[in-house]
Amino acid sequence: MEGALKAGLKVGVYFFSQATSRREAHEEAAYVLEQIRDYDVTLPVVFDMEILGYDYRTYNMTRRTLYGVTQAFCDDVRAAGYEPMIYMTQYLGYQKYTLRELTDYGFWFAEYYVDYPSFVYDIDIWQYSDTGSVAGISGNVDMDVYLIRE
Questions:
Q1: pTM higher than the cut 0.85
Q2: How far apart are CA 103 and CA 14, in angstroms?
Q3: Which of 8, 20, 38, 45 is the 20 to 30 A CA-CA neighbour of 53?
Q4: Segments forming the whole domain that contains residue 101
Q5: What is the CATH number of the domain that holds 133?
Q6: What is the number of structural domains in the chain?
Q7: Tens of pLDDT along 16-66?
Q8: Which contiguous run of DSSP H or E holds residue 69?
């Protein structure tokens, strides 16, 4: 982050959550906010609740619990003066979340191998690849487009 800021770039942060209660989500938000308090974070603070398999402790959360966890984290981020955003795939967006309850936050949507995203909600960032390359970074990197609205 220090290098990006020194180079004049805008920065945001991304947090991979495994919270299963509002209490844990508040704890995670407090941790993130403590880590970024000395930096000029001008892009979103992103909440990522990836529920990938049966072995994830978050796998069997109800929609209501997932909403409460996500809301707790995002509201703490907003109260601290940052812009909250939620990262998701189609599976998470359509199968796990009730998205109409979360439209107060920005959406970062991952969908690969398509010419444009097919998500029915407005999105702020589109992650279109996880096999990109960037000079100076070894291995695959995610590729994203930040959709700026005026």
A1: yes
A2: 19
A3: 45
A4: 2-146
A5: 3.20.20.80
A6: 1
A7: 999 999 999 999 999 999 999 999 999 999 999 977 666 777 778 888 999
A8: helix 63-79
